[in-house]
Amino acid sequence: MNHPYLSTTLINKVYKRLFLNQCYVCGFKQEGCLCSSCTTFLKRNDHCCDRCASPTLSPLALCGECQKEPPSFSKAIAPFEYEGLCRALITKAKFENQPHLLRPLISQLADHILQQNQPIPKLWSHVPTATSSLIERGFCQTEFMSQLLLKHLRCYHPDLKIELITIERIKANQAQHTLAKRERHKLTHKHFYVPQTPSESVLLIDDVITTGSTVNACAKALTLSGAPNVTVWALARTP
């Protein structure tokens, strides 16, 4: 009898029953990590720019910013607006060392991707966390997102295989959330380096798209390294 295997299996079952089969917000016992009542407090980003996912008052092909200066990525997907419950979950996850609170939003992002029948690129990358934030938090939230998102998608696409493309920061800069909008726009592709040469479309993962400067700079670095196309998936977009 494989006692270590049985012990691990039992621990996993207990953990799932105690922590995963309940709403992360109100504690309601159920399948999944966000109940239907709490889900209503997530503001969906239904009306947005088709290119950068910036929230708009009505459906729009391209917002004024994208018409004036198209971003380096071909499309961004962000199912929620960064406010209310969505903002609270992400803030607590990042700044109060509770990364598990990203699980409900990652699950929702996976469902959104599957419902929209979005193509899933084989090459994945994530926005690198600033060194100062990495030291403060002890984890990279975008890397955590990538791992969990892949796990969700493989429930429906068991044969899904991906290759990771690394983006490195080559210039020290402050964490974006500490900067004013004008300062954020100073971030360029010169702050990042891609050691690989991607020959296919790349999926870039981020938690929140605020001004779009970071994902745009990372997408530019990817295209300069050889990627023919970059798609961005994020949890939320700032209104």
Structure description:
There is one protein chain. The chain has 239 residues and is of the alpha/beta class. It has 2 domains: 40 residues, no CATH class; 195 residues, Rossmann fold (3-Layer(aba) Sandwich). The protein is built from 9 helices and 8 strands. The strands form 2 sheets. Strands 1, 2, 3, 4, 7 and 8 form a 6-stranded parallel β-sheet that branches. A two-stranded antiparallel sheet has the order 5-6. Helix 5 crosses helix 7. The longest helix has 18 residues. The termini are far apart. This is DNA utilization protein GntX. InterPro entries: ComF/GntX_DNA_util-trans, PRTase-like, PRTase_dom.
Quick tags:
239 residues; alpha/beta; Rossmann fold; 2 domains; six-stranded parallel sheet; two-stranded antiparallel ribbon; 37% helix; 13% strand
Q: Element order, helices and strands?
A: HHHEEHHEHHEEHEEHE
Task: Name the shape in a single word.
Answer: globular
Distinct helical segment count: 9
Label the CATH architecture of the largest domain.
3-Layer(aba) Sandwich
Gyration radius, to the nearest Å? 18 Å
Mind describing the biggest β-sheet?
6 strands, parallel
CATH class category label of the largest domain: Alpha Beta
